[in-house]
């Protein structure tokens, strides 16, 4: 079975992430969307909320599993018997950053390759941080995120007011 891991903070998942999953779900038997607990980022949504939003947003794809992890990606990849890491690219600066991460991962776990997938041009400017900022300032982000995320962002904003 060809298993790939799509790691990220997904705070929150966007239509750009869904685009990457739609493209790569045709290439692998199973994709594990793995929510990373990143201690250096201040998350708006809890780990559990992010996992739930991803599950709701990907329930139309049969070969998607959602999980979370702490620690080194290479250890997680071995545990899941993954053959690839999926990374979405929007810009040249994304590629520079991802290339360095890919090289480090290749050194740690040589049998796993990183697959770079370009985001659709309509998603080039979409980022989780931009979505959060726009939503918190009252912007309409409904066309940029799955319905489940739009709903939860609205609830989170009302709760914080």
Automatic annotation (TrEMBL):
What's its catalytic activity? (R)-4'-phosphopantetheine + ATP + H(+) = 3'-dephospho-CoA + diphosphate
Q: Name one GO biological process term.
A: coenzyme A biosynthetic process
Q: In which pathway does it act?
A: Cofactor biosynthesis; coenzyme A biosynthesis; CoA from (R)-pantothenate: step 4/5
**Which CDD domains does the UniProt entry name for this protein?**
PPAT
Where are the residues marked Transition state stabilizer as a site? Answer: 17
Q: Where does substrate bind?
A: 9, 41, 73, 87
Give this protein's Gene Ontology molecular function annotations.
ATP binding; pantetheine-phosphate adenylyltransferase activity
The organism's place on the tree of life at top rank? Bacteria
**Coiled-coil intervals:** none
Q: What is its EC number?
A: 2.7.7.3
Going by the record, the broad EC class of this enzyme is transferase
Question: What family does the Swiss-Prot or TrEMBL record give for this protein?
Answer: Belongs to the bacterial CoaD family.
Could you tell me what this protein does? Reversibly transfers an adenylyl group from ATP to 4'-phosphopantetheine, yielding dephospho-CoA (dPCoA) and pyrophosphate.
- Return the protein name: Phosphopantetheine adenylyltransferase
């Amino acid at each position: 079975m060809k298993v790939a891991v799509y790691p990220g903070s997904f705070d929150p998942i966007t239509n750009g992430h869904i685009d990457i999953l739609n493209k790569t779900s045709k290439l692998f038997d199973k994709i594990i969307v793995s929510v990373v607990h990143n201690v250096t980022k201040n998350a708006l949504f809890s780990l559990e909320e992010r996992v739930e939003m991803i599950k709701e947003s990907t329930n139309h794809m049969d070969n998607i599993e959602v999980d979370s992890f702490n620690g080194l990606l290479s250890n997680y990849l071995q545990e899941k018997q993954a053959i690839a890491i999926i990374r979405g690219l929007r810009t040249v600066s994304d590629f520079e950053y991802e290339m360095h991460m890919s090289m480090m991962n290749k050194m740690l776990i040589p049998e796993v390759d990183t697959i770079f997938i370009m985001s659709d041009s309509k998603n080039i400017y979409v980022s989780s941080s931009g979505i959060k900022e726009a939503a918190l300032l009252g912007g309409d982000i409904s066309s940029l995120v799955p319905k489940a995320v739009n709903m939860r962002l609205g609830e989170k904003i009302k709760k914080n007011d």
